[in-house]
Amino acid sequence: MKQRIYLSLAHMGGREQDFIQEAFDTNWVVPLGPNVDGFEKDLSTYLGEDRHVVALSAGTAAIHLGLVALGVQSGDEVICQSFTFAATANPIVYQGAVPVFVDSEPETWNMSPGLLEEAIKDRIARTGKKPKAIIPVHLYGMPARMDEIGSIAATYGIPVLEDAAEALGSEYRGRKCGTFGEYGALSFNGNKMITTSGGGALVCRTEEEAGAIKYYATQAREPAPHYQHTRIGYNYRMSNICAGIGRGQMQVLEEHIHRRRSIHGLYTRLFEDQAGIRVMDNYSGDYDSNFWLSCILIDELQAGISRETVRRKLEAENIETRPLWKPMHLQPVFKECPRYIDGTSEGLFDIGLCLPSGSSLGDDDIIRVAELIKSMCR
Ligand SMILES: *Cc1c(COP(=O)(O)O)cnc(C)c1O
Fold it and tell me: Which sequence ranges are marked TM in the entry (predicted)?
């Protein structure tokens, strides 16, 4: 059996252990410390736009604290892209609020501005209340239509919380994803663009907001010699050890993005003349995806094979692939939630497949995957 090819693996740069060693040498084996400060500074510098980044224990924690900071409470509604990972929607429910799912549009696979506006109008008409926040996602690294979404959000005065967990390094009209919303959430889980072995960050607009996020993330402890609390807090800060990995990873981030983009370019060339296989691509020059995962759509009639058969045959060849995210409005746990759906994400889910895209893969791996798929097609 040939060596297994994974979808997306952690890929170390080399300097990570030096930062961890330093933490041990100085006995900073605790939450917080110099690596946390350093990692936050690296991220703020990288993202630009004068943003303030708070390192947290997970991307999910970042989304949760973004909602807390936006004042989302029990009984509120929050508009959420349906085509995403459950971690986008779960924190809405942690707050006792209700997710309102909005479908995607076919060019970016992300939140449809038309359906977003329809949802806002209809929620106001039905409940007499505005949704408290809007969460668009940059799925697989592809930027959402932030101009249109931002202008609808501004028209109705609803804040945007960007889920940029998959989009570190992606740009929309020359600006980094994660810097468009009131808040932006990043993830450093093992399979994302860079990893801290598990972690996330919230991108904030002001130092005051970042301070409030740090406060909530450390049990909402008030400045007093004893333990004093006037609000409910969380234990969501990143540890100094994890942040050490993050600092090492920041040194290879550009390289890793470059590699993921070249993997996408290679898949695009290899599938160019294959009927029935379409590689997801930037819709126009406004979009510059990091191509966290390269995805294809398989037209069964043209290709002569279904997505699921391709997936199973690749698995038999020890190659890991995965269907696209199953939309949240189709998940049993969210079956009671309001939804504004036109079938786009469901159609993509039926025929889409994520291909091995990790930055540690070689061209030979990518060629093996693509040639195998082509050999299955008509
Ligand atoms: C990974 C991911 C998250 C959650 O991040 P964690 O660090 O795993 O908690 C949220 N949203 C999306 C779209 C993701 O892919």
Answer: none
What pLDDT is stored for residue 167 in this prediction? 98
Q: Which atom of ligand 1 is nearest to the CA of 63?
A: 10
Side-chain-facing half-sphere of 126: CA atoms under 13 Å: 10
Q: For residue 153, give Cα distances in angstroms to 36, 90, 241.
A: 33, 22, 38
Question: Are residue 35 and residue 139 in the same domain, yes or no?
Answer: yes
CATH number at residue 324: 3.90.1150.10
pLDDT of the residue at 351: 98
pTM of the entire predicted model: 0.96
Q: Which domain holds residue 66?
A: 16-252
Does 4 reside within a domain? no
- In this structure, is residue 7 part of a structural domain? no
Q: Which residues sit with their C-beta closer than 6 Å to ligand 1?
A: 58-60, 84-85, 87-88, 137, 163, 165-166, 187, 189, 200
- Split at pLDDT 50, 70, 90, the class of 261 is very high
Q: Can you give the pLDDT at residue 23?
A: 85
Q: Give residue 89's identity as a one-letter amino acid code.
A: A
Among residues 116, 89, 57, the alpha carbon closest in space to that of 344 is found at 116
Residue 328 and residue 232 share a domain: no
